[in-house]
Amino acid sequence: MAHDHSENIQRLKIIEGHIRGIQRMLENDQYCIDIIRQIQAVGAALNKVSVSLLDGHLNTCLLNAIHSDDPVEQKRVLSEITEVFETSNKIKPSKGASLK
Amino acid sequence: MAHDHSENIQRLKIIEGHIRGIQRMLENDQYCIDIIRQIQAVGAALNKVSVSLLDGHLNTCLLNAIHSDDPVEQKRVLSEITEVFETSNKIKPSKGASLK
Amino acid sequence: MAHDHSENIQRLKIIEGHIRGIQRMLENDQYCIDIIRQIQAVGAALNKVSVSLLDGHLNTCLLNAIHSDDPVEQKRVLSEITEVFETSNKIKPSKGASLK
Amino acid sequence: MAHDHSENIQRLKIIEGHIRGIQRMLENDQYCIDIIRQIQAVGAALNKVSVSLLDGHLNTCLLNAIHSDDPVEQKRVLSEITEVFETSNKIKPSKGASLK
């Protein structure tokens, strides 16, 4: 199932440039909080790519798998959605705190 | 589509108890970092409920909507998955940092 | 160092009410995505409490520890800030993906 | 206050390489979920850099600002810690869900 990823490829090229920019900020020993802010901005931009990819995936590969009526394939594609959602939700509490 | 939510209802009762526990920690002016740790543990437990609900939803309501062959219904249920994924990914960079 | 936690205690009472509300949504088998949205709203409200607690902690206990000139105490309070920041940042990639 | 950022610069070079790798995955129209997994792994690696920077910042610039006994400077550096913590915690609930 061919996708047009041109927009996301462009986003990643911008992100790549910002990663190099952050390297320079470190080389120039710029203020750490400014660097953390830039990293958080890059994190947000990366998440935009993930969300756009997921949206495209749901409307193509997932639909095809479900229409294929192959229960094994259906189970696989649905469990992957749960997996990436779980990963993005993962707050791993510090050792000291857990809900018994 | 009836779901068996007993496990998640039980999880939420435990979470409710921990929320009251955190209130007591605040009333007793306990150490703030210990309270933040407990809040992060509650956050992780809440996310577990979200992930389990999404997994159930994908394998019931989403499948039914897609098998219904109603394109409007399909679009709606798929866009909701993207929405909750986007919400869980949302890192809103501080005002000072954005990728131009 | 006594803090006035009344505002956060009030926030937690509202959160406690919403947790019971989510239990009822589950008991009534309401639409899963609506329940996930509510859980995400509760997660955001919990984070507001964490942020407010951290801000208070920085301006009281942390300052006192640093002014105490006790290097062991300083190291401890600073490492706790890194720990809760790390926990809130923790995105644990799924098994299949890691940066070698 | 000079920091030795060599380790983080090296991490960012690895991350930069992975960003190019993700671009190639998109150009080759590889499986979207595999690409999302890689993006999540890059997000985790970026967060490691943020956490390490924060730790260094706390133990240098923050300590200096607090020892400077300049209340304006103290307030500024402490509020920055709260800000980056808040950004990393930011779960922006979807429009439909908010705690009234």
How does the helix and strand content of chain A classify structurally? mainly alpha
Q: Which sheet architecture does the biggest sheet of chain A show?
A: none
The number of distinct β-strands of chain A equals 0
**Mass-distribution shape of chain A:** elongated
Distance between the termini of chain A: 46 Å
Would you state the CATH class of chain A? Mainly Alpha
Spans of at least 5 consecutive residues with low confidence of chain A: none
Give the SSE string of chain A. Answer: HHH
Report the β-strand fraction of chain A as a percent range: under 5%
CATH architectural name of chain A: Up-down Bundle
Count of structural domains of chain A:
1
Number of helices of chain A: 3
Largest interface: A-B, 42 and 42 residues
**Cα gyration radius of chain A (Å):** 19 Å
CATH superfamily of chain A, please?
Metal-sensitive repressor, helix protomer
Mean pLDDT of chain A: 90
Could you tell me the CATH topology label of chain A: Methane Monooxygenase Hydroxylase, Chain G, domain 1
Oligomeric state of the chains present here: homotetramer
- Residue share in helix of chain A: over 70%
GO molecular function, one term (chains A, B, C, D): metal ion binding
Protein name (chains A, B, C, D): Copper-sensing transcriptional repressor CsoR
InterPro entries (chains A, B, C, D): Metal_Tscrpt_repr (IPR003735), Metal_Tscrpt_repr_sf (IPR038390)
